Amino acid sequence: MAVVKDYELAEQYLVDIFKDVPSRLHEFTGSESSPWLCLQVLAKSKLKGYASALRASKAKTNFDSMERLKFDSYVDAMTTEQQIVFCGVYYYQKSTALLAQELNKADDEVKKILKEAFLMIKNG
Predict the structure, then answer these.
(1) Final residue of a domain: which of 59, 85, 108?
(2) For the packed helices 7-20 and 35-59, what is the interaxial angle rounded to 10 degrees?
(3) CA distance to 12, 39, 74, 112, per residue, from 17 (Å)
(4) DSSP H stretches of helix in the chain
(5) How many degrees, rounded to 5, is the angle at CA 103 between CA 101 and CA 105?
(6) Label partner for 90 (CA 20 to 30 A): which of 64, 99, 100, 102?
(7) Same structural domain, 68 and 111
(8) Tens of pLDDT along the chain (124 residues)?
């Protein structure tokens, strides 16, 4: 994973993780899980977000060259860009603002792409 190979990035993630600990202190002290396990879960969730952003940043460069996702006929009819936005919102419950950041697009542009995807579903 790129985080492990990049010392500065790994250090930044550690800082981000430990900055989050005070706001989640109740999870560390109030649960029956060990604090170590809670810290691992927090770290994994932060790194999962990083991996998603990394995949999206690679994807944003050339949507046409990406492998098409296999879903039902409605999603199959969408462009790759529409699939990424629709699936990000519908299946992964990401906000349009987060997707805009991951795809390096304006929030309004992502909302427009999402609207087009819903029109594709509506019109069949």
Answers:
(1) 59
(2) 130
(3) 9, 8, 39, 33
(4) 2-5, 7-20, 25-30, 35-59, 73-76, 80-90, 96-103, 107-123
(5) 70
(6) 64
(7) yes
(8) 555 677 777 787 788 888 888 887 777 777 677 788 878 887 877 776 665 555 555 555 555 555 555 556 677 778 888 888 888 888 778 888 888 888 889 999 999 999 998 898 888 7
